[in-house]
UniProtKB/TrEMBL annotation:
Any one annotated GO CC term: cytoplasm
Claim: Lyase is one of the keywords in the record: yes
One Pfam assignment: Amidohydro_2
Residues annotated as domain Amidohydrolase-related: 20-339
InterPro entries, sorted: ACMSD, Amidohydro-rel, Metal_Hydrolase
Keywords: Hydrolase, Lyase
GO MF: carboxy-lyase activity; hydrolase activity
Protein known as: Amidohydrolase
Organism per entry: Nocardia colli
GO process annotations (BP): secondary metabolic process
Amino acid sequence: MHELPWPGESEEKQSRRMIIDVHTHYLPTSYLPMLKTLTAISSTGPAASSTPDARRMLAAMSDEPGMIDQRIDMMDDAGVGRQILSPGSMAPYATESRLAVEAAQMLNDSYCELTRSHPNRFSALVSLPLPHIDASLEEMRRGLDELGMVGVALSCSVFDRSTAESEFEPLYAEMNARGTTLVFHPSQNGICSPFINDYGFTTAAGASLEDTAIVLHLIKRNIPARFPNIKIIIPHLGGLIPMQLARLDGQARTPDLLSPPSATARGLYYDTVGWGSQAALRCACEAFGADHLVPGSDFPALLAVESYQRTFEYIKESRLPDPEIEQILYRNAPALFDLDKTPPQTVPQHPRS
């Protein structure tokens, strides 16, 4: 595996480095027909689009012939030793419980098969059949205990309900009891705002606003304080949050908070997906600290504008101090995931709902 060069460092030391990309997406071809029947998929999302860009995106995310090998080649070129996989905004959510459970089981089984065949390169997050809480608790147990998954994937909202709402608290209680890692992802609903969606910014701006909103909702609900064993990762450098900490402390009208908004926000983790903006990266690093940033790529979303390798090179070129760059790229992510977990030799059988 070829690592990104580190000035003045021996090849032997470089070879011991491994980037863990915590924000990558994978959609097996067997899951794609199911997407057409899941009513939670946004009409603006790639699963619902027939544009050439969307088709290329889906192909890069898939297990079509040669695509996994191509993905691994890109990982080698970028110095990425392992990807943490999730479906992103194409989660298995459906109003009908049977359909949601079937989709989640299919998706998680497929993830297990990939991680089993490439145990040193891929790990996966368990996807939940939301908004069905009891079924989601059972699938979380199956994914974490039987399929070797290393965390939980959760959208910022489900059918336009924030996942910080009280009905989702049994999920947080279970994750807290397990001390697991929770990775959020935008639903691509543009925070349900015509001021965003009617102007065509559902993905370009709406995703970051969703990231912002879920942090605010977690703060308001005191979820990090009440469920302190969950390691929470927010994508895209936290959206607007790194620029708002002082204002939140000064103007938030939330007397029921257990700690200042800035303190809660600084207790979360944030991935480095910033579309190459070194200014945004430096802002997040100053706001949250280098010890709370983890490498992320949003693979394959940025391949339309930059190489996979470039997604991580921008961190090294950010003019942050070398020890902080090293911490972000190599030290933080391994502490958040139990990468010693191994997938089963065969995918466990389960009763279809």
